[in-house]
Amino acid sequence: MGGYEASFMMSQSLVGRSISPPPQGKEALAQKAAEFMTTEFIESRIRPLCGSFLNGNSFDCVAEIIQNTGTGRLTLKYSLGPDCVLFAKLYVDELGLRCYDVSRTLWSSGFNDAGRYRIPEPLGFLPDHCLLVMRGVPGTPLGAIFDGENSVDLVSGSREAAEWLAALHRSAICSGSPDSDWDSLKLFRLGTRLIKACAARPEKLDMVRELLDKLDQRTSSLKENRPFVFTHGRYHHDHVFLAANATTVIDLDRCRPSDPAKDAAEFVRVLRLTAFKEGFDMERAQRATSAFLDTYLAKVPEAADSLGCYWAMYVFHSLLGGLKKGRNKAKKNWEDLEQFYVNEITLALDFGR
Amino acid sequence: MTQKSTRSDRQAWKEGQMALLGNAEFVSQQIFPLLGDVSDDRLAAASEFEVIRNKLSSRMTLRYRFGSTFEVFGKAYHDASLASETHRTMADLWEQGFSSSSSMNIPEPLGVVSAANLLLMRGAQGVPLSDIIAAGGIDDALAGARLAARWLVKFQSTTVSGLRAESPCEKVEVLKLADAIAKVVAELPEHSALLIEMFHGLRSISPSGNSSPPLVLMHGQFRPAHVFIHGTQAAVIDIEKICLSDPAKDVARFCHVLKKTCAELAGEMARAERVAREFVDEYRRLNHQGLENLPYFKALLAMKALAKMLKNHKVEENQRQMICLMYSAEFEHALKEGSPRTLAA
Questions:
Q1: Per-window interface: B 181-200 vs A, CB < 8 A
Q2: Looking at CA atoms only, how far is residue B293 from chain A in angstroms?
Q3: Is A162 found in the same domain as A22?
Q4: What is the ipTM of this complex?
Q5: For labelling alongside A64, which of A39, A147, A341, B46 has CA 20 to 30 A away?
């Protein structure tokens, strides 16, 4: 038996195992969602959740699918009038109910329409359909600036995002099992990306290993018993909605206790990378980064110790993801992007040192 | 991972050390004073100096033999602080019940020659368990495995102050594994799908959180060749990588090396399996807790060994295939053992 054959046999044996349930396809989800857009469903299941806020509006509802990207989630929009919009999120796993519970907890803990820092109001969860229904949120996403939206200012918006995050991290909420470091740093996913990257670009092996070595040293310094807080889990500019009197953050699927640096690092990574890819003014992006970090760390100073580690690791993920494809992105060619990633990792590893 | 000192640095250091450590004046002035109540007559006998382990690492193991019966061992370290740190740990263990008066012991630490980063100790009595497993009777091998388990349980229940605790990320060794695998797939990309699938599998049985279970002393190189059996006594050598970590790591390493050695020597795998099972059963009999992550660490070691073997060109092809299949089976078995359904049962 040759090497390939043995490898094949082992692969077959391993591939046969169901490690996680297969994700439902986009088509299957869309098919399922069609039922939720019928008048009968809206009248019988959605309308009763609206309570008093319809304020006598007629229930002429327009329903549409606004997101179905193959992640096992589908988002529906129910428009009941210019100021009355509901969203419903369809799940294929247990996260829907969990997100509903977390939303109710946050809402009742002050992240509601009586305060400045908010989440979408949870209206109900339909367990028979794994459908979470919530009210629309006011304002414009911070990320709209990268699409040319001029009503948003990146620096002041980032400061607001930092205030919201600090409010979450300083809250006493504690729900769900604490994240392990290998999950919050996505180390196993990094392993698979590394394999794909090094198989596709073996000439980059030394560069990748050198960075990996630095990251290994940095992650090894993360203490076991450092303080955890209630984190968002997907904190980036597209999830932050800015209005005159409110800052609202959506997508609470991944909330759990974890290292506070996880959210801050994700925000900074995505903001700077998007700015670079889109050819945005990087000096302004730097000012937004500083505004975010200064505001946030003034309120959650303990996050500074591990922030550089999380930031660098998340950028390394992006580098590996790009390396395996080696494709140009938006307005940047791959060589510029690769250099940007390496510079960002260096910057992040120096953070707080 | 990249080496902190280059190969030529270490080679130069070793050449210098060998000239120094075998020097008669050095032996009489630096070694003799550490030997305690050994009579001058015995020391006066011609001494022999021998390097018994000198791999491409930053340390050397050596033996000083005085006359025909008396010998002491030395460990010379490239790292300036390691000799004294290891001595301190060994002295602490010796004081806490691992002296020669106990049936579970370690070699007696004699002292440190700071000028040479040299730690001196007596030898361990007995025969390496690896020899008994390879060539002894099965009853002796099983008895040896039980003694090894008892030694480890005692060791893990001991407290040594000032030791470093492995951080959560160090503990699970994912980045070390990723580094090893990066080298393999850069050379042999055809194995990518297999290794990615294994990574997914490994993740599915990863430890549940940063703090579970509580950390204990970890030997770091707990393997049959380091366990010396003398009647009902067990002495364990190579006490130098000690830190605090998950108790399952030493258990997993012992079983892994036992089977690996057997496969490499084309030995009887059923026998190795039986000895490993005896070791784990005895461990569990004495210590009911702390092995929840054993399947993970077994799978981790099997995967790392498989990856290395895939690109090993020194082993004959048939044997390489056989060993790869053995690691694959080990990995599969660990996954089944660690799956939520098995754990619940």
A1: 181-183, 185-187, 189-200
A2: 14
A3: no
A4: 0.88
A5: A147
